[in-house]
Amino acid sequence: MKIKRAFRIWQRNFTVYKKLYLSSIAFNFVEPVLYLVAMGLGLGGLVKDVNGVPYIKFIAPGLIASSAMFATASECTYGTYIRMAHQKTFDAILATPVSIDDLTAGEMIWGATKSVFYGSIITLVIFLFGLVDSPVIILAIPVLFISGMIFAEISIITTAVVPGIDFFSYFFTVLLTPSFLFSGIFFPLDTLPPVVTKIAFFTPLYHLVNICRAFSAGSLYSVRWDIAWLIVVVGLLAPYPFRLMRRRMIK
Q: Where are the alpha helices (DSSP H) in the chain?
């Protein structure tokens, strides 16, 4: 794999994205804002605070994390699959000196970039709403890229094994939606049976929510193990997207 060639894949996707970004932003930006308004103001009218924090301020950092996750997952499942199976973009790219590994790396880096982009937009929104207590939140941006690589790896793995595009609904319903609901965005997980927290620990969104919430409050040291978890998992998952995409494309 050559980084320069992987970057060209990223550059190609970015060039296309610049022509379509308005519709993409509408999908990935409006939904988190609706959650912020509906849950933060609606439910927040009943739940005044959580652990001494106003409810809307409690959920706001978690929406940074969920927006980043869904942006990457959508790009590296539906987006990647369409380029591979329907538009035949991958066939054209692979007719050049670009290898399957270069292509896979470029797709994952692009997915992680979208994680940073949409997470940063939501960060700006909650900052403008006055829901951020510390400028330390800016440090969430590189963490969004790290976690974005995990979401990209998982999504590319799924893309490499699904028999058809309709099967992505299982990926979102069975894996991402439970992660979204039980990652601590909307309520502390210690209100649920301990087994839920143990399961949530193995999801990257749980750790990203912890990090965004801590950074929003100005805390760094408390989430050092969450950051370490993300870095380790990026490395552990790294071989599988390449291996499975090679098998898919060669077949």
A: 3-35, 55-74, 80-81, 89-94, 100-128, 140-161, 168-170, 177-181, 194-200, 204-217, 224-237, 239-250
Q: For 60-110, write each residue's pLDDT tens digit.
A: 999 999 999 999 999 999 999 999 999 999 999 999 999 999 999 999 999
Written as one letter, the residue type at 222 is S
Q: How far apart are CA 107 and CA 114, in angstroms?
A: 11
How many angstroms separate the CA atoms of 228 and 56, rounded?
Answer: 28
Closest by CA to 143, choosing from 82, 204, 53, is 204
Q: 3-state class of 131 per DSSP?
A: coil
Output Rg (C-alpha) for the chain, integer angstroms. 18
Tell me which residue of 234, 239, 217, 205 sits closest to 58, measured CA to CA.
217
Closest CA to 207 of 23, 88, 2, 65: 65
Rounded CA gap, 29 and 14, in Å?
18
The answer to whether the beta carbons of residues 186 and 39 sit under 8 Å apart is: yes
Residues 6+ apart with CB under 8 A from 31: 67, 70
Domain map of the chain by residue range?
3-250
